[in-house]
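Figure 3 (text version): structure tokens given as input.
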């Protein structure tokens, strides 16, 4: 892609988004006022819906009244309203019709279809463009092509024809024709149903392009897995690139021009190193935009090794099917500003919520370096919605706290009072890998309530001593969690046990969960689970202390 096209893209984006960006920054000077206005707008717009009448929206003038009249809801409490509006068209949740359902697996694998109104679609598009504006003002990652992976915009339809699919796919498809020319993968590629074949198709489009400067997707493990597929199918992929063909996918896909020179270039690289990395494929890639927090940190560390040394890994921001929660407005400091002009936010400290104390706080009342459960109210019908996520305040933009995703709320195990968190386990594994110079392909720590101990399951192809792994990991967790240390010292919590997973176990586990209904593009490994609830197939008879 020529520099003229890049500067044209930058100019167009700047002209269109600068006023909205400035408005967002001005709103950050008074988050309390901004949030009150957002809540009033949402409540007044939907006061005559079934939900609004039941909860007396017409009498809501203040935040306190809203909290008194509307209890916290999870998806199952909202599901009857969602299904009634979907099946009958009644204004059950929103006065505005639902135009799309974002399908998400949540954490259980049971599909949840999150309603999105046209206003909600517009807000998501606006926030995505503001995120791109922040990136283009602070980095040069868009000088080449963008290799972005999303989901299928339409995976099905309701009985009335409303599409059900992916939020990322919907926004991807609705980009202008000019913007779409900057992307290496056409949105139709995300519609390929077979997951392995979809990776192959994306690889053909992507490897065809030499001048990729940006990689983007939600979960970094997607890029790790893609590279495995590339190396396992490299001969077929290069033949398709050479001949300008695509495999039979049962759907219509944009054509690929024959590119024998690119195919030969990649073959020469393979002859030297046997396996390709992203350093080989796109040596000038400048930035990778992905989730960096929570359980994704482990995948980020693996991805880092596959990229050119100067490639910047950039936090995407807090983003879910239910909400685009933050925008990364300071790339160097990783400060992610809440979408305070579109979403009404409430928070409860982790200690309060887990002790059944509902002391709700507004955005302007948060304290830095504190962990909170987050609750959202949106224009698309989620009212005081418990998304079961924990966030941390990392700083401020003007007087508005910036937020970082930490973990899912249920990412905590507690056998004897140790309250071990997934973030502690992730940090512990990072330290273990550094201390022992190991690089596991997959791991999970399982809380075994029957044995009052933890079972460390690791997929690792290098030689290692199980006792060293468990003793070292146990010692690290003692340093990270004083309650864990106390329970281990008192022997209320038994010694950690070990189970070696066979090669390919992590991928097989992922594939099984996706086949059971979890979304490929949104899949997150849970590295801390209870043994009694895990779906990871195990023969623990060979587990050792």
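Below: residues designed for each position.
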């Amino acid at each position: 892609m020529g520099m003229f096209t890049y500067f044209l893209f930058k100019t167009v984006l700047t002209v269109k988004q600068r006023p909205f960006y400035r408005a967002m920054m001005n709103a950050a000077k008074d988050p309390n006022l901004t949030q009150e206005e957002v809540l009033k707008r949402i409540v007044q717009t939907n006061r005559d819906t079934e939900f609004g009448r039941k909860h007396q929206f017409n009498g809501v003038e203040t935040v306190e009244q809203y909290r008194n009249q509307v209890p916290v809801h999870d998806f199952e409490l909202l599901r009857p309203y969602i299904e009634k509006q979907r099946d009958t068209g009644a204004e059950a949740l929103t006065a505005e019709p639902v135009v799309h359902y974002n399908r998400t697996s949540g954490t259980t694998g049971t599909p949840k279809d999150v309603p999105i109104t046209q206003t909600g679609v517009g807000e998501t598009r606006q926030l995505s463009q503001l995120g791109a504006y922040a990136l283009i003002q602070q980095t040069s990652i868009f000088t080449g092509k963008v290799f972005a992976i999303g989901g299928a915009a339409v995976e099905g339809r309701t009985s009335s024809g409303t599409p059900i699919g992916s939020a990322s796919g919907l926004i991807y498809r609705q980009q202008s024709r000019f913007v779409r020319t900057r992307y290496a993968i056409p949105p139709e590629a995300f519609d390929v149903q077979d997951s392995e074949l979809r990776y192959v198709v994306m690889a053909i489009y992507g490897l065809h392009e030499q001048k990729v400067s940006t990689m983007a997707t939600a979960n970094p493990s997607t890029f790790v897995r893609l590279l495995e597929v590339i190396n396992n199918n490299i001969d077929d992929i290069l033949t398709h690139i050479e001949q300008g063909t695509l495999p039979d996918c049962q759907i219509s896909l944009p054509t690929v021009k024959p590119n024998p020179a690119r195919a030969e270039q990649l073959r020469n690289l393979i002859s030297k190193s046997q396996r390709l990395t992203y350093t080989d494929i796109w040596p000038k890639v400048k930035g990778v935009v992905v989730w960096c927090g929570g359980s994704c940190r482990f995948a980020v560390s693996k991805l880092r090794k596959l990229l050119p040394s100067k490639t910047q890994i950039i936090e995407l921001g807090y983003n879910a099917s239910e909400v685009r929660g933050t925008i990364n407005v300071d790339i160097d400091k990783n400060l992610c500003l809440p979408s305070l002009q579109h979403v009404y936010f409430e928070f409860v400290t982790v200690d309060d919520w887990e002790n059944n104390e509902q002391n709700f706080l507004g955005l302007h009342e948060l304290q830095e370096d504190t962990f909170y459960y987050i609750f959202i109210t949106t224009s698309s019908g989620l009212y005081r919605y418990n998304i079961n996520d924990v966030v941390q305040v990392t700083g401020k933009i003007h007087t508005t706290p910036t937020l970082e995703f930490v973990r899912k709320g249920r990412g905590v195990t507690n056998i004897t009072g140790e309250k071990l968190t997934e973030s502690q386990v992730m940090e512990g594994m990072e330290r273990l890998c550094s201390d022992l110079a190991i690089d596991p392909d997959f791991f999970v720590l399982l809380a075994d309530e029957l044995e009052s101990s933890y079972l460390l399951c690791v997929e690792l192809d290098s030689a290692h001593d199980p006792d060293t792994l468990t003793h070292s990991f146990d010692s690290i967790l003692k340093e990270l969690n004083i309650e864990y240390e106390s329970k281990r010292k008192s022997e209320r919590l038994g010694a950690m046990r070990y189970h070696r997973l066979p090669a390919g176990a992590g991928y097989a586990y992922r594939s099984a969960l996706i086949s059971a209904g979890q979304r490929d593009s949104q899949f997150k490994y849970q590295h801390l689970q209870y043994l009694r609830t895990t779906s990871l197939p195990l023969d623990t008879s060979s587990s050792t202390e």
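The chain has a mean pLDDT of 91.
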